[in-house]
Amino acid sequence: DGASTFIDPVFEGDPAGKRSISSNGLTLDAEGRLIMCEHGNRRISRVEADGTRSVVVEQYEGGQLNSPNDAVYASDGSLYFTDPPYGLEGLEESPDRELDFNGIYRLSPDGELALLVRDQTRPNGIALSPDETTLYVANSDAENKVWMAYDLDDDGASNGRVFYDVNDQTAPGAADGMKVDTAGNLFATGPGGVWVIAPDGTHLGTISTGEVTANVGWGDDGRTLYLTASTSLYRIRLSTEGHIPGP
To answer: Would you say residue 247 has pLDDT above 80?
Structure first.
């Protein structure tokens, strides 16, 4: 039936000092409620069954988050998310910025927020390997276009390393949103479209859209990949099956 409006507006406050007031990454919790990364309100919120919104997380150690960008649930109900400065006018130089880093976090089911990584310059898209031992995070810094990988355990994230480097690419687009399939292949938006990268770092191919592509999501029976781009929403039928993370 085509597209229809779900929430309008996303942000109703004062836009002064904000570079973006939109929502960004979206996911669903175990009850099927929409989880939104909000740039304007600088928080992650949950849309309840009656349409109202509840705050999931908005501060770290008393400081307001920058502008949460993307999120993914683990099977135990933990929520992993990135917090770059893209919602703030002036980015890192914004006078409204309360944290002096762009963090990668884990929010436990009981509400404990842990900072996992603070030294990635522009953390953006985020995904978990199917066995949840590896955390993938896109770095959308124009000066360092890479996808990072981190080992995960109960103590946090370690062994941060470049999983794939696209600094030599000239097509428009940065490392941005991503998902994985059941084989652990990464479907990652980047220069020129969606890069498909095997768990061992082999580039398997690129889905070209002809425009900057920002995010992807599995739909239908799990074999259809939806792609959001600058002007369009695409879908492509694939032979592989998407891994749907979460509890």
So the answer is: no
Based on the domain organization, do 6 and 88 belong to the same domain? Answer: yes
Confidence of residue 208 (pLDDT cuts 50, 70, 90): very high
d(CA 18, CA 25): 18
Contact 158, 139 (CB under 8 A): no
User: Tens digit of pLDDT for each residue in 90-109?
Assistant: 999 999 999 999 999 999 99
Q: Which residue spans within 3-133 are E strands per DSSP?
A: 23-28, 34-38, 43-47, 53-57, 59-60, 63-64, 71-73, 79-83, 103-107, 113-117, 123-128
Instruction: Say yes or no: 111 and 135 in one domain.
Output: no
Are 149 and 245 in the same domain? yes
Domains in the chain: how many in total? 2
What's the CA gap between 118 and 83, in Å, rounded?
Answer: 10
pTM: 0.96
d(CA 162, CA 156) in angstroms, rounded, equals: 18
